[in-house]
Amino acid sequence: MTATSPWLACRIRRPDASMRLFCFPHSGGSVGEYVRWADLLPDLEVWGIQLPGRGARAEEAPFTRLHELVDALVHAVDFGTSFAFFGHSLGALVAFETARRLRDLGRVTPDTLFLSSAPAPQLPPRGIPPSHLDEDGLLTALEPTYGELIQELREDEELRELILPGLRADLLLVESHRHEDRAPLPCAMTVTGGTQDDLTRAELEPWHVHATGPFALHLLPGGHFYLRDPEPRSTLLRLFAEARSRRNPTP
Q1: Distance between CA atoms of 61 and 71, rounded to whole angstroms?
Q2: Do the Cβ atoms of 109 and 138 come closer than 8 Å?
Q3: DSSP string, 100-161
Q4: pLDDT in tens, 79-132
Q5: Is there a smaller number of Cβ atoms within 10 Å at the N or the C end of the chain?
Q6: Other C-beta atoms within 10 Å of 127: how many?
Q7: What CA–CA distance (Å, rounded) separates 20 from 85?
Q8: Do 73 and 49 form a contact (C-beta atoms < 8 A)?
Q9: Are 79 and 189 in contact (CB under 8 A)?
Q10: What is the DSSP letter of 4?
């Protein structure tokens, strides 16, 4: 793993850290807000997964098929030997399928999967706007989740041209995904969600069948992007730190 990989971004390198945390962004999102967590997680090395078509890779064509994205990622990145994955919304599905692909290849898998604001993959799709909607229909469909960003997109044509192609590609990633029942992953799993999100506990709890290790579900104050508010974000970061402590107990 090198800092020059286009797939990776890191704010603070900590080569002696006992665990790396790889963060998979939400639909249309970039790694910026995730790599900043390094300032608050001094014992971890925090990496963001930069997908083509967004952020620093905005000029690249985005993937529209999840298996193709995952294959490209695992062949480009060596995650090391002690690491955890965090994925928010779409990122949770990408992180999960990346972990399964690593196992298929006989490579090291994450110690813990942190999966946020995403329904368990075996459930029928719900509430996903179809990628073929026209521009206004797409913005209207996304407004309950993305809130103020949608108003900004309506008012700024250049911003729409920058963000909407990536969002459409992300919708295709989800729409093209077909879940396969497989053996659970040999890891711990922590699932989080917002108390004011429209995702229910009944849609989050079924994630537990996909891991053999300890499972925990935490509902934190806020909506789909609860992690942008200081109090629930602090709780989420504490969960990351506790996972690191369990793996590396103080003598």
Answers
A1: 16
A2: no
A3: HHHHHTT----SEEEEES---TTSPP-S---TT--HHHHHHHHHHHHTHHHHHHHH-HHHHH
A4: 998 999 999 999 999 999 999 999 999 999 999 999 999 999 999 876 566 777
A5: C
A6: 10
A7: 9
A8: yes
A9: no
A10: T
Residues acting as catalytic residues: 89
- The one-letter amino acid at 63: F
> Residue 248 has what pLDDT?
56
The answer to whether 23 and 35 have CB atoms below 8 angstroms apart is yes
Structure tokens at 250: 């103080």
pTM given for the model: 0.92
Q: What percent of the residues of the chain are helix, what percent strand, and what percent coil, each to the nearest 5?
A: 45, 15, 40
CA 155 from chain centre, in angstroms, equals 28
In angstroms, the CA 91 to CA 117 distance is 9
Using DSSP's 3-state secondary structure scheme, residue 56 falls into helix
pLDDT, average across residues 36-61: 92
Q: Is the pLDDT of residue 2 over 70?
A: no
What percent of the chain is predicted at pLDDT more than 90?
A: 68
Q: What is the pLDDT of residue 164?
A: 84
- Is 153 within 8 Å of 159 (Cβ atoms)? yes
Confidence of residue 249 (pLDDT cuts 50, 70, 90): very low
> What pLDDT is stored for residue 133 in this prediction?
83
Q: What's the whole-number average pLDDT of the chain?
A: 90
The token pair that represents 239 in the structure block? 């969960």
DSSP-based three-state secondary structure for 83:
strand
CA–CA separation, 103 and 207 (whole Å): 18
Number of neighbouring beta carbons within 10 Å of residue 245? 13
